[in-house]
Amino acid sequence: MVEAARFYEQRQIGLGADFLAEVEHSIRRVRENPEAGTPVRRGFRRRLLRRFPHGVLYRVDSDEIVIVAVMHLRRRPDYWHKR
Fold this sequence. Notes:
single chain; alpha+beta; YaeB-like fold; 4 strands; elongated
């Protein structure tokens, strides 16, 4: 996530901050309605970011939401499986 923010900030001043704000917005939405994310694999869900080709990958345990990754949707899509 930090690497992506740096990349976007190098492209355009303020874009990295916009990316991080969008990640935070998506995480808030996940907290408000954890079951709304798209199921992607056994027990894992994904919520897409607006404006950026990334998604928040998470799972819902009985008493907590575990964010597994903020993943780029077009690069190495299965890298998170070992997490």
